Amino acid sequence: MPVRLDIKKKLNARSERVKCVDIHPTEPWVLSSLYDGNVHIYNYQTQSVVKSFEASDQPVRCGKFIVRKQWIVVGSDDMMIRVYNYNTMEKVKMFEAHMDYIRSIAVHPSLPLIVSASDDMLIKLWDWEKNWANTVIFEGHSHYVMQVAFNPKDPNTFASASLDHTIKVWNLTSPVPNFTLEGHEKGVNCIDYYAGGDKPYLVSGGDDQLLKVWDYQTKACVQSLDAHTHNVSAVAFLPDRPLIISGSEDGMIKLWNSNTYRLETTLGYHLDRVWSISAVRGTNKVAFGFDNGTVVVRLGKDYPVASMDASGKAIVAKHNEIVAVNIRSGDTASFVDGEKLPVASKDLGSCEIYPQKVTHSPNGRFVAVSGDGEYIIYTALAWRNKSFGSADEIVWDSGAGEFATRKGNSDVRVFNKSFKERNIMQIPFSAEGIYGGATLAIRSDDFVCFYDWESLQLIRKIEVETRNVFWSPNSELVAITGEQSFYVLRYNRDVVDQELEANGGKINPDGIETAFSLVCEVAEKVMSGCWVGDCFIYTNSNSRLNYCVGNETATLFHLDQPLFVLGYLPKDNRVFLVDKATNIVSYELLLAVLEYKTAVVRGDMAAANSILPRVPKASHNMLARFLESQGLKDEALQLATDESYRCELAIALDKLHLAASIARENPSELKWSQITDLATSKGDLKLAEECMKESNDYSGLLTLFSSRGDREGMKKLAKDATDAGLLNIAFTCNFMLANISACLDSLISSGRFAEAAIFARSYLPSQVQRTVELWKADLRKSGNIRAADSLADPESHPAMFPDFAASLAAEKARAVTYAARENVPAAMYATYEEKEEGGAGG
Question: How far is residue 247's CA from residue 235's CA, in Å, rounded to a whole number?
């Protein structure tokens, strides 16, 4: 079967002629070296230019990332090599490297070395830790050296391609070649090594329009590939797929199967001649450099191929190689959250097809591998072939051992547990994908249909764009994930059984509307997931590990890279995930916590309480917050351990004195303030007063004391407010207490001399002279001498104060009146006023 290619363009950036491209292994960047002397770094995710600068006024024919130094190294036709820091764009080094155009640069994968190739027919080795010293010159070619490439399996050797029709393989320690490969009839433009472990191959492309695959151990040409109509200018072994990619001056990109050497497909982007190809191990992105721009494509899906059964045995596909990992072979108690698991792996050999998906059967006995239009079912332990066939996808049921396959858009077949074909389904729409579980789900572009495994009749059609379907272990809940959100639905199998029984094994052709009911919709893009009981654990597009129980979602961990859920082991209380490089990591997730939440969501508090003793005390507060989110605040209050949170719950439940008791043991101004509001609304003024004092709520105390005529409270509040520097509160208290002298003192002590003088003129005329003198002194101190001199006082300007003697007499009379009133209780205020008015009238 041909290799199935899912090719998606990620970047199409037009520019001047691009002579070289290089993909960054960790950032979403591609480096483009241009014939006009400029260098661009593009972000292929955002379609933007990250950096751009002119390196030379002559063509830049080669450029590479040196990731471990955060550098870019470029070579140009002015015979110079330039090195830049790609973060700051600071030029690190510039030196003359050759006597002619520099055609190619290769960076050693681990040592501080690069090799450069030139039209001067030389190859040179440079050591940047020795101030870019030229440590070896490699001589042997008799024409331009077009490209150099390190052997990834033996970095002490590298190969070179030359227009002298040859390929030479070199050792870093010798200036003469180890051997020469001859076979091209014209100049050789490009080379690349195969990175896999099973074949000692390299590929070359030349002006004879041929690609040649070489065994560099036997020094024989294994295969010649002929499909281009012009010079082959770029070649690459794709690191993560069984493909060879070639580019030509005919403007075409061709993809070849590296196992069968069959031409799989041809790509054309109408950007004229192809000059460069870059592909990096660990990423499925490939970059191309053309006469008129740069293109980046994604080849295949961007996720690891792995599966784990319920016992912790994982199957991981690394290219065609299959590896078994027994997670429980390690000390699970020593596993650290987010770190690679220190467990041994076992090589099971290679797969006959290139795996694109691996899934365990529900009982873990078998593993289904699909890819390149074929599937194979292996035994999980011995890795023996049990069944095979043609299909794009294969999915398992939830327990009976049956499975279904999809081939193309209309061929869906169901097989029994003996691997015999049971039925061919007649699908009235284009089937774009299938999903296993409690039902067989088949999706189209904008809906998904659920079918009964036994009768293969339609249960329900749901109008939603679907990326994946995840069933809970008990087959009661299903998560349907889409591009922007996911839906959790409850499946009612009893309704389906009743329909079948009532209609003689038949279901209404339109399905059963009540078979599914919506539990919740969550606006998140799910990348991977699994169910633990009624709890859906998933990773989202923001690299977070989240869970969903009922209608509650929460983040468990923030991930530092994209990870994909493998599964959960209840005995170890850990969820296991795999990264794109197929490294397995884990995070602790207590099963008892999930079971407790599941019981609460189901409304079974008796079961939840029986589970609670298994939940560590440290998790009680988190569960209390979950209970609150479910509307169970009383239960949350009983379970909460954080006193501050308990106080919040007590306030929310109107448990006034419990909240106050907690606040007394764990003082907090915020909590006292909240209790104040509650106590006031309940009419508990004694508790309200205590709360106001604890929270230093002077304004509240002023309102409280003044409203109930508490003279002693007002006196103490005036003193406390003065000590706290709250002079407005102190002034108001003293004024209401008729302590006019204290009011004046408050104004003077705060430097408000103008207000003090005016206040004295109104209420304390005996103090006008003193306050005016203080006002004048303050004005003079600030340089306002004219203003100070313009102020009048009773001694110097008596004519300005008519009836001043009467004012002084009124002040004394008022003092006597206030003294008489001082001990009159507030309750007697109305009677006292009537007496005073009657006395005045008599």
Answer: 6
String of DSSP letters for 685-726? HHHHHHHHHHTT-HHHHHHHHHHTT-HHHHHHHHHHHHHTT-
What H or E segment, with its residue span, contains residue 191? strand 188-193
Q: Are 682 and 673 in contact (CB under 8 A)?
A: no
Q: Which residues of the chain have pLDDT under 50?
A: 1, 838-842
Token pair listed for 604: 């079974």
Residue-level pLDDT at 20: 97
688: tokens are 């309200």
Q: What is the pLDDT of residues 295-320, one digit of tens each?
A: 999 987 778 899 999 999 999 988 77
pLDDT in the model for residue 796: 83
pLDDT given at position 623: 87
342-355: string of b/e by CB count within 10 Å (b at 16+)? ebebeebeebebbb
Residues 254/269, Cβ–Cβ less than 8 Å:
no
The SS3 call for residue 551 is coil
Q: What is the pLDDT of residue 829?
A: 64
Ramachandran area for residue 220 (φ above 0: left; ψ -120 to 50: alpha; else beta): beta
Rg (CA), the chain: 42
Q: Are 562 and 304 in contact (CB under 8 A)?
A: no
CB 264 within 8 A of CB 243: yes
Strand extents, DSSP E, 372-485: 374-379, 385-390, 393-396, 403-407, 411-415, 421-426, 433-435, 440-443, 448-451, 458-462, 468-471, 477-481
Q: 558 - beta bridge partners? A: 544
What is the residue type of 191?
I
pLDDT at 842: 32
The distance between the two most distant Cα atoms of the chain, rounded to a whole number of Å, is 136
Closest to 630 (Cα-Cα) out of 643, 617, 639: 639
* 329 three-state secondary structure: helix
Contact status, residue 23 vs residue 30, Cβ threshold 8 Å: yes
Cα–Cα dist 433/415, whole Å: 17
Question: In DSSP terms, which residues pair with 169 in a beta bridge?
Answer: 159, 179
